[in-house]
Design a protein that fits this description.
heterodimer; A: 283 residues; alpha/beta; 7-stranded antiparallel sheet; 9 helices; 16 strands; B: 463 residues; 18 helices; 34% helix; 16% strand; globular
Chain lengths: 283, 463
């Protein structure tokens, strides 16, 4: 069992949560860009989440998530002191930072929770980081202080203009590039559609663009092959070959389709309210 | 006098049209009288070819004699002396090519049903004696051995080493111990409660199992030595699924057999109380002809598919699956499309599988495997109308450990190189099972685990 030692709501609307979990075996070696898989209880699915932070001394790992499916909704119900049944990692390859001098890190919505530790790791190595964080509106803006501390420049955009600059992250990135900013690499983390459009936006400028993919998977060690993605015409397993890939080479339409494979089942699960427990399973 | 009946006592089974709709065990097992009657068929011959045919050398005529005498518990004790997982072996071993394949009775008529008798003794023990066993606190010699992977190789190695007095820790990447016994082989062939029972026995005997621990990621083999383990056994299996590399393999509804079986077996997608999603496909093509393909096809049938096809490029003769599995699959309504080679998965506009395009094949000259090589018949293309495709053409060893352990040699196929004593190129590191051989059987992995335990004992005693 893996105890939740801290729980925090990250934005005004309460749509994103942070949990610090005791997981010494994960904490001892994990690096930015890697992920964990949790399973809430005996009946739960195995759900991958990117590692947002870690404390090697305390043996804790921080995760940030938006309750969207049944498992993350049930995770959100837990409080400090409660435990998660399974928590395994670190999985995947860490973010590569070698040889970089100037980087733009782009986060979209809850993706900022994953983009932020990447920015932090790069910034700590002396890399100049422009962080562009996009949200739908003010009420879901999160991690502003953390992101500011982990970047050279922080740009916040909202779709409706209720906070920061009005517009999409793609617009902001393009305007920075047009204004003469030069980047060795752009790292984009967020919803699939956003990563797709960031990749399309950087393509004409030929800036290397890395995206962090989070497809459906079971084991996270290369065993099920469920997380396969086409990258440059080759099939890769996101869990072991990724999760970060060259955004210019990813087959986005296939990725988006595969990500939505169990949408019907997920909706059915969410709509099903247990008559005994009122929706929450008691294991 | 031995019973000279030329045929085995038949195995009571669930009726095919009932069982293909449930996940309960297909074979129900012998009762005491049937077991005694079958045991009486053993000639108890002097040279014991059966024992020589067993990868873990179970003293077969001895345990069968005890069953014939009605001393069922004693029979179990004889088996368990050399076999850490009798209830598992009695169910999934390919006895026809091992103990039973060597049985003298098989020369004229059917061999003695060694597997069924082994299962009987193990089930008898579990139902009647297991609970009485007090947890034995064993003196350990204080020397620690780490085992990577809790499948049949790792569990056997662990069981044997604990018996020899070592402190054994098994590291498992999944949340549950058992490896292929829990994620791969379906409930109806090997009930998970039985696997758990065998694992519980190992834990009681002193084996420590750490789940959610990925050696090669969270901790390396070198770090295991630094932490005080004096030897490491790698039994990490062949977990990497192979695909056909044909167009359309990433369409929605194409699964590796690993994924399909894991969703059902480990993640229990067939039980409503579990959250694991699975699509209820109506027409399913399973590509491949091994035991895994049979398992996947029979699972698909039980998940409610109307039509399930085994698509295999050779003929029935070359089908690598056990005859029993093929027979069971046929009885349950699985259709065998033999001498058919898939060349593309076809999808609809939304990216969902709508068919599997195949070519008819004919058999040519024997290839390097000794089997006749399938040759395409040009222009014989046809489309099998399916909405799911499961690829069951084999697996390769997972590269995770090899890639993170310096000096550990592997061959071209990624299999860790180990000698006949299970020793690898790294001192103190031993390996066995599918990680070394590529995908093979449970019992061969157990045999390798056993050999490794002996070698580790020898190595540590001489150290």
């Amino acid at each position: 069992m893996y105890r939740i030692v801290k729980k925090r709501i990250l934005n005004e609307a309460g749509t994103t949560l942070e949990m610090v979990v005791e997981a010494p075996l994960v904490a001892r070696k994990c690096l930015a860009g890697q992920f964990i898989i949790f399973r809430l209880d005996e009946f739960g699915e195995r759900i991958p989440l990117t590692i947002a932070d870690y404390d090697r001394e305390k043996g804790t790992v921080t995760i940030m998530f938006q309750p969207v499916g049944r498992s993350t909704q049930m995770l959100a119900e837990l409080s400090e002191g409660d435990s998660i049944l399974d928590f395994v990692g670190p999985l995947g390859k860490p973010t590569e930072t070698d040889g970089l001098k100037r980087v733009a890190v782009v986060g979209g919505g809850v993706g900022c929770a994953i983009a932020y530790p990447v920015a932090k790791a790069m910034h700590a190595k002396g890399i100049e980081v422009d962080m562009i964080a996009g949200f739908r509106s003010r009420s879901i803006v999160m991690l502003e202080d953390e992101m500011r501390a982990s970047s050279t420049n922080l740009y916040i955009t909202t779709d409706d203009g209720s906070y920061g600059e009005k517009g999409f992250v793609t617009d902001k990135l393009k305007s920075l590039i047009e204004a003469g900013r030069e980047y060795d690499k752009v790292v984009a983390i967020g919803p699939g559609v956003m990563m797709k459009y960031i990749s399309l936006a950087t393509k004409p400028y030929d800036i290397k663009t890395e995206v962090s993919l989070n497809p459906i998977m079971i084991d996270g060690t290369g065993m099920c092959g469920g997380c396969r993605v086409s990258v440059g015409g080759e099939t890769k397993f996101a869990c072991v070959d990724g999760p970060e890939f060259d955004g210019h080479l990813v087959d986005w339409d296939e990725l988006l389709r595969r990500g939505a494979f169990y949408k019907d089942e997920e909706t059915a699960q969410k709509e099903h309210v247990c008559r005994l427990t009122g929706g929450v399973r008691h294991a | 006098m031995p019973d000279m009946s030329p045929e085995k006592n038949p195995m009571p089974e669930q009726e095919a049209n009932v069982r293909n709709k449930n996940f309960l065990e297909v074979a129900k097992g012998y009762d005491a009288d049937t077991a005694k009657s079958e045991a009486a068929r053993c000639l108890n011959c002097k040279n014991r070819p059966c024992t020589a045919g067993c990868p873990v050398n179970v003293r077969i005529p001895e345990f069968i004699a005890k069953i014939a005498e009605g001393e069922f518990e004693q029979a179990y004790q004889i088996i368990s002396y050399t076999n850490s997982l009798p209830a598992v072996c009695g169910r999934v071993c390919p006895q026809e090519s091992q103990c039973e394949g060597k049985c003298v009775r098989g020369v004229k008529g059917e061999p003695v049903a060694v597997g069924r008798l082994e299962r009987f003794a193990a089930d008898y023990h579990r139902e009647n004696s297991a609970k009485e066993e007090a947890a034995v606190t064993r003196e350990t010699n204080g020397r620690r051995v780490a085992i990577v992977g809790s499948g049949p190789a790792g569990l056997t190695c662990a069981g044997d080493l604990v018996r020899l007095g070592y402190e054994v820790t098994v590291f498992e990447a999944f949340h549950k111990a058992g490896g292929v016994l829990v994620y791969g082989i379906p409930e109806f062939r090997l009930p998970k409660a039985i696997v758990q029972g065998e694992i519980d026995k190992l834990i009681e005997s002193g084996v420590k199992i750490v789940t959610n621990a990925i050696v090669g990621k969270a901790i390396s083999v070198d770090e295991l030595f630094e932490e005080g383990y004096e030897a490491v056994f790698i039994g990490s299996g062949a977990g990497l699924p192979q695909f056909l590399n044909i167009p359309g393999e990433n369409l929605l509804g194409v699964y590796s057999a690993n994924e399909y079986l894991t969703r059902i077996n480990l993640m229990k997608a067939y039980l409503p109380e579990y959250d694991t999603p699975i699509k209820k496909a109506k027409r399913v093509a399973v590509v491949g002809g091994g035991n895994v393909a049979m398992d996947a096809a029979r699972c698909a049938k039980r998940m409610g598919a109307d039509e399930v096809y085994i698509v295999y490029r050779r003929s029935l003769e070359e089908l690598p699956a056990r005859r029993e599995e093929v027979h069971h699959a046929q009885e349950e309504g699985v259709v065998f499309k033999l001498l058919n080679n898939p060349i593309a998965v076809l999808g609809n506009e939304e990216g969902y599988v709508r068919g599997l395009e195949c070519l008819h094949m004919e058999l040519g000259e024997p290839d390097e495997s000794g089997r006749r090589r399938p040759v395409e018949i040009k222009g014989s293309n046809f489309v099998l109308d399916v909405d799911a495709v499961i690829i069951a053409i084999g697996t390769s060893p997972n590269p995770l450990i090899k890639s993170t352990t310096e000096g550990l040699e592997a061959n071209r196929k990624g299999c860790i190189i180990a000698d006949q004593n299970a020793a690898t190129s790294r001192k103190g590191v031993f390996a066995g099972g599918d990680a070394v051989t590529g995908a093979a059987t449970v019992i061969l992995a157990m045999g390798a685990g056993k050999t490794a335990a002996e070698s580790i004992d020898k190595y540590l005693k001489s150290k």
